[in-house]
Structure formats: C-alpha cells, structure tokens
Design a protein that fits this description.
Helix content: 55-70%
Low-confidence stretches: 296-316
Radius of gyration: 23 Å
CATH architecture of the largest domain: Up-down Bundle
Structural class: mainly alpha
Number of strands: 5
Number of domains: 3
CATH superfamily of the largest domain: GntR ligand-binding domain-like
Strand order of the largest sheet: 3-5-4
Strand content: under 5%
Shape: globular
CATH class of the largest domain: Mainly Alpha
Number of helices: 13
Mean pLDDT: 82
Largest sheet: 3 strands, antiparallel
Distance between the termini: 64 Å
C-alpha cells in the first residue's frame, strides 16, 4: 500500500472531502466516493479503512460517519502520489530540456536509469511507449536516438490535443460541488497568482504549474486509451515549446493569465465561457509550439551546414 500512488492520491483527496463534512454526519457511499475520487471501490475501501484506523471515520458500510472528535489527518507527500511512470516521463523531458537536446542525440537506457534512480526496465518501458509518437527511434547497435520535432508533427498533434482538452473541460464543469477537484483547482489558481506576483524572478516556475493544470483537467474524464495518449501529448507540448527561450518570461506571464481566466471560466460552469477561454489558451499554445518547431528546424539546418563546412575544410 505504501508504494501505491493511486491509493495515496485518493487518500489525500478524501481528506479534503471528509474535512468538508460536519462531525457526526454520514460519509458518502462507496459508490459516490468512487465516482468523486476517480478510483475503484476497492481503493475507496482501503482509504476508509485507514481513516477508520486513525479515528477520523466511525462505523461501517452505509452507517459510516465522520468522527465527532477532532482528528487531523496527515496527507501523503505530493511526490508519493505520482506514479513512477509519470515521474520518469517528467524527468526524461526535464533532462532533454536541460541539455538542450538536438536531433541525432543518443539516449542510453542505463545512463537514464542511474540519473532517475529507477530500474532500467522502467526506462525501457517508457521509451518504448514514447517511440510511437515519432520523436525517438531504436537503432540496432546504437541505442535510442532523438529524431526531433517537425511542423507537420506539431499540427497533427495539436488537433488531437484540442479535441481531448475541450472534452475534459466540458467534463470538469459537470463535476458535483463536493468533488475534490474543485479544491485542487482553487489551489492552482492561488499558485498562479503567487507566481504572477514574482513573475520577474520566478517565470521559470510556470512550467510546473502548466503541467499540473493540464493534468488536472485531463484527470476528470478518465479513459484508458485517451489517458495513455494524452499524457504523452501534454508532456511533449509542455516541454518542447520551452526549447524556444526567446521571450520566455513574457510568454509565461501571458500563459499564466490565460490559465487564471480559464480557471475562472471553469468555476463559473458556463460552457460558452469555458470553450472561449479554452480556445484562446490553446490558440496561444499552438502559436508557441509552431514557433518552437521553426527553431528546431533552423538548428537542424545550422547543424547540417556546420558539418558540411567542417568536412569541406578537412578535404577529401
């Protein structure tokens, strides 16, 4: 159980949900909790069992109630609620970004497993999944190679992102008022405001907020096929456009303000306002991504020209 990220995330969400219930009041049914927490009823029962052990919940079955005694439930650290596969995805893209990876860059499984502190099999599973999107390829005897990002790839990818994200945004405004997702959204809004207060020195921190916001949106409409695809899409968008460092501070400030407008629209539950805010933000993201692909292609051409120049100087 201690290594179960899904359980820990559900437990943390349940802590917020139980906190909103009056002492002595009934706890929602397992079916309702399963729907609100977006986990199985088996996981819900594990969560309730731990809460009962800690004295926060009394009774059993349909007779469960919030304890009349004031019990402070400690949440699990946020880092423990993220599945290892998602952690590897994040670390991989941060590594590629930090090293300013260019097309042709080799990727070594053993090296990455040591850097990330995970088994080589975990890294290999991630790379095998990531390979489907055309950014890396496996070459016999040479390991993995980073292929780069083309404008055609970007346009096709964006069409999928727009469809998925709009679906998730519409699902978000249909959530019940007591859903823990609203508390997460309010927290994200405040974190955006805090960032904007110090945007001149903290604009690099926007990347984490961007990832958290879009992952939250996607998590409200679980679909095993879309989730697997959308996680990679979000990650590619989130990190790839950061390779373009020009006007990064200004771009991040604009995006942060767009997020706040987007969040406010979600809180309003106004479908038209949500679709408008979503559309405006995605339009900006599309423009940023397309500029990024231009930079990548310019670097490829520059690299090819440099190689040709060096070969010319060396002679036949």
């Amino acid at each position: 159980m201690k290594t179960d990220a899904t359980f820990k995330r559900a437990f943390n969400d349940a802590v917020d949900l139980v906190a909103s219930i009056e002492p002595g009041a009934a706890i929602p049914s397992e079916t309702v909790l399963s729907s609100n927490l977006k986990v199985s009823r088996t996981t819900v029962r594990k969560v309730l069992a731990v809460m009962a052990e800690r004295g926060a919940v009394a009774g059993s079955g349909r007779a469960r109630r919030k304890s009349r005694h004031k019990i402070r439930l400690e949440k699990f650290p946020q880092s423990e609620t993220v599945p290892i596969s998602a952690q590897v995805e994040t670390r991989f893209m941060q590594w590629m970004l930090r090293d300013d990876a260019q097309p042709g860059r080799t990727i070594n499984e053993l090296d990455l497993s040591r850097r990330f502190g995970v088994a080589t099999t975990v890294v290999r599973e991630f790379l095998n999944r990531f390979q489907r999107f055309g950014l890396i390829e496996k070459r016999p005897g040479a390991g993995w190679v980073f292929k780069g990002f083309t404008s055609t790839f970007a346009r096709e990818l964006f069409e999928i992102r727009e469809m998925f994200e709009l679906r998730s945004a519409r699902a978000f405004i249909r959530l019940p008022e007591d859903s823990p997702f609203w508390a997460h959204l309010a927290d994200l809004r405040q974190r955006h405001l805090d960032l904007l207060d110090e945007i001149d020195t903290r604009f690099h921190d926007f990347s984490d907020l961007d990832s958290a916001f879009h992952r939250l949106l996607n998590s409200v409409s679980p679909n095993r096929f879309i989730e697997n695809f959308f996680d990679i899409i979000t990650m590619i968008f989130h990190y790839h456009y950061q390779w373009n460092k020009r006007d990064e501070r200004q771009r991040n400030e604009v995006a942060a303000r767009e997020h706040i407008a987007y969040i406010d629209a979600l809180f309003s539950r106004d479908r038209i306002a949500v679709e408008r805010a979503c559309g405006m933000h995605l339009a900006s993201a599309r423009e940023t991504l397309m500029r990024s692909t231009v930079r990548t292609q310019e670097n490829v051409i520059k690299g090819c020209c440099q190689t040709h120049s060096n070969q010319s100087r060396l002679g036949p």
